[in-house]
Amino acid sequence: MHEISLIRSTFRTLAEEFSEVEFKKITDIHLKIGQLANVEPILLQNAFEAVVSTEFANQPMKLHIEWLPTLIKCPVCQHTSEVTQYRFVCQHCQRPCSQVVQGNELLIGKVELSS
Ligand SMILES: [Zn+2]
Q1: Cβ proximity of 26 and 14 under 8 Å
Q2: Ligand 1 centroid from CA 33, angstroms
Q3: End-to-end CA separation in angstroms for the chain
Q4: Structural domain count of the chain
Q5: Contact at 8 Å (CB) between 81 and 72?
Q6: Does some domain include residue 43?
Q7: Who contacts 72 (Cβ-Cβ below 8 Å, separation ≥6)?
Q8: CB 71 within 8 A of CB 102
Q9: Contact 70/100 with Cβ under 8 angstroms?
Q10: CATH number at residue 26
Q11: Mean of the pLDDT values across residues 4-26?
């Protein structure tokens, strides 16, 4: 499942970036996910809770998701538009546009540690 591997790789990255002592203080994880990243919010929450309850049972952690809108940049007029309802059209000159500049992201935005 895509979401489980996403959660596992998030924890791998955190384990690399934080010391063991710091890692144990993590309470909240904020992910930034693009709308085109093909992630189901409910599946991601379920995957997060499954991994935390099996691998970090003594450390309750919360997942927060910030969804990033899909942005396209028009090759003709250079205008950046937000894609709504999967319409990849420049909002300035109405030309079809497929040059995505934001929307595929899967990033760790912020991590909160207990003091
Ligand atoms: Zn345009």
Answers
A1: yes
A2: 26
A3: 34
A4: 1
A5: yes
A6: yes
A7: 80, 81, 83, 88, 90, 97, 98, 99, 100, 101
A8: yes
A9: yes
A10: 3.30.2320.50
A11: 96
- State pLDDT tens for residues 37-64: 999 999 999 999 999 999 999 999 999 9
pTM, to two decimals: 0.86
Residue 1: the pLDDT is: 60
Domain of residue 26 covers 2-68+103-113
CA 4 to chain centroid: 13
Q: Does residue 87 lie in a domain region?
A: no
| Cα(93) to centroid(ligand 1), Å | 4
Q: How far is the CA of 44 from the centre of ligand 1 (A)?
A: 35
CA of 77 to the centre of ligand 1 (A): 4
Give 67 Cα–ligand 1 centroid separation in angstroms: 25
Distance 98 CA to ligand 1 centre (A): 11
Token pair for 87? 């319409």
